[in-house]
Design brief:
Layout (H helix, E strand, L loop, with lengths): L2 H13 L5 H10 L4 H21 L1 H4 L3 H10 L2 H22 L2 H10 L4 H25 L1 H11 L1
Length: about 150
């Protein structure tokens, strides 16, 4: 696999809503790419796509299913949760449970402030990328063995 292909795999894995940074960083490290660059590329890719989703949520709300969900779920109790610390906790811990893009879509549909959502997505990228990289470095030999076995 040539160097460009390895980087392309990392970026596309990061942009995939089902995988994200949690798979892209270990994959990049397992492919032998520099750890710091993998973290930077993965973090930027993740943040960029989350920002695009936030900025284009109006367009997504034109889809009838999303509009019905948003209208149904928006209420005083949910709004109070979002305006409080709920948004921060959801964006930081949500990627472990649902994935970054699922969290962004749900909270945008529930009426979260766009600026706060972009800021918290950046914060999430900065907070979650180093621990994922550290774990990946610790298990680098295992990752490389798995990739060689698959290939």
């Amino acid at each position: 696999m040539i160097l460009f292909d390895k980087w392309l795999v990392v970026v596309l894995t990061t942009l995939n809503p089902l995988t994200g940074r949690g798979i892209a960083i270990p994959l990049g490290i397992g492919l032998g790419l520099p750890v710091v660059l993998v973290c930077v590329v993965s973090g930027i890719s993740n943040f960029a796509l989350a920002s695009i989703v936030v900025l284009f949520m109006e367009e997504l709300e034109r889809i009838p299913v999303i509009r019905r969900f948003a209208e149904k779920k928006r209420g005083k109790r949910m709004t109070k949760f979002i305006e409080g610390k709920g948004l921060l906790y959801a964006v930081i811990f949500g990627p472990f449970l649902l994935g970054t893009f699922s969290v962004v879509l749900v909270f945008q549909a529930l009426g979260a402030d766009r600026r706060r959502m972009v800021f918290y997505s950046l914060l999430s990228s900065l907070m979650l990328t180093p621990p994922i990289a550290w774990i990946s470095i610790e298990y680098k030999d295992l990752l490389q063995f798995v990739l060689r076995t698959i290939h």
